[in-house]
Specification:
The protein has four helices and 19 strands. With about 300 residues, the chain is α/β, with parallel strands linked by helices. It folds into two domains: about 80 residues; about 210 residues. Helix 3 packs antiparallel against helix 4.
């Protein structure tokens, strides 16, 4: 029996293309991909329906399978929007890491899904203080810390529990504050969700940022001397703010999307954007951006 051409595959591709188009025109927030990702089991259901459609000779069966698939997608989206889990499912966890006598620190942060907020501590002797919000047993925070030759290494990573609620992903949020007292090397990886990294009060010697899906805003250090940063763009809006007292050398590899950069402040010089006073400035930023899909704004 000859298998009929697939209908589900083209429908999925068209749906993804429409979402990207709406994102690029600003008609749909990039955060919608967090919601889409949480319904990945629907792909298995649609593949099963595709198999039934392909081997069936009945037009009625084909129509019923397509209608069922559309109803499943619509029902899950409506449930996510209107029927989120009760607020009593929200839990908060606090984590603190003492300085431990270190003179510098490497800090690695990985969040698979949710919102990441980073700022600076005030009047605190600790290396890090954080509030971690999650739902049920989903995406709890895992912390490890070690010291080697007066250098600390702190690792924060999302650890998924036995139960992972598919709705209301915006409930996952990490609020992290870091010490401004010592030089830091930051390695940050975001998954699906937003991020706001306010580093202006920190001594960040290096930043390695890998962006997933969602809107990300980064404010670079204002008085850290030299900061070397590499940003790998993902899918979504990426906003990079450079304080007015910081000179920058920016290398941009634009992906699929648009670039908005203040060329009055960072005029283009060859394959880079360079502040006129970069060579003599007290506070400097060497920034390399590997663009993804979406809009990149540098100001």
């Amino acid at each position: 029996m000859r298998r009929k051409p697939s209908l589900i595959g083209p429908i999925i591709l068209i749906a993804i293309g429409v979402l990207f188009l709406l994102n690029n025109f600003g008609l749909l927030p990039w955060g919608v991909w967090e919601l889409v990702w949480r319904f990945w089991p629907l792909i298995l259901i649609l593949v099963g329906l595709d198999i039934l459609i392909g081997w069936s000779r009945s037009g009625i069966a084909t129509a019923l399978a397509l209608i069922l698939g559309l109803l499943l997608i619509l029902g899950c989206l409506l449930a996510a929007i209107y029927c989120g889990p009760p607020e009593r499912g929200m839990e908060m966890e606090s984590l603190v890491q003492e300085m431990g006598g270190v003179g510098e620190a490497d800090i690695e942060i990985k969040l698979a899904a949710g919102e990441l907020i980073i700022g600076s501590l005030t009047d605190s002797p600790n290396l890090m203080e954080g509030q971690f919000q999650y739902r049920g047993e989903g995406l709890r925070a895992s912390k490890s810390f070690e010291v080697l030759d007066s250098k600390g290494r702190l690792r924060l990573e999302s650890r998924r529990g036995a139960f992972f609620w598919p709705f209301g992903g915006r409930g996952y949020r990490w609020d992290i504050e870091l010490t401004p007292q010592i030089p830091l090397a930051l390695s940050i990886e975001t998954g699906i969700g937003g991020a706001a990294l306010d580093l202006r009060g920190l001594q960040v010697a290096s930043l390695d940022l890998k962006v997933g899906v969602g809107s990300v805003n980064v404010v670079f250090p204002a008085s850290a001397g030299l900061t070397i940063a590499k940003v790998d763009g993902g899918v979504g809006d990426l906003t990079l703010e450079i304080p007015s007292n910081v000179a920058a050398m920016i290398k941009m590899d634009l992906g699929i999307g648009s670039l908005d950069i203040d060329e009055g402040r960072f005029p283009k010089s060859g394959d880079r954007y360079l502040s006129p006073d970069f060579a003599t400035a007290e506070n400097r930023l060497e920034l390399e951006v590997d663009g993804g899909i979406g809009r990149i704004s540098v100001r």
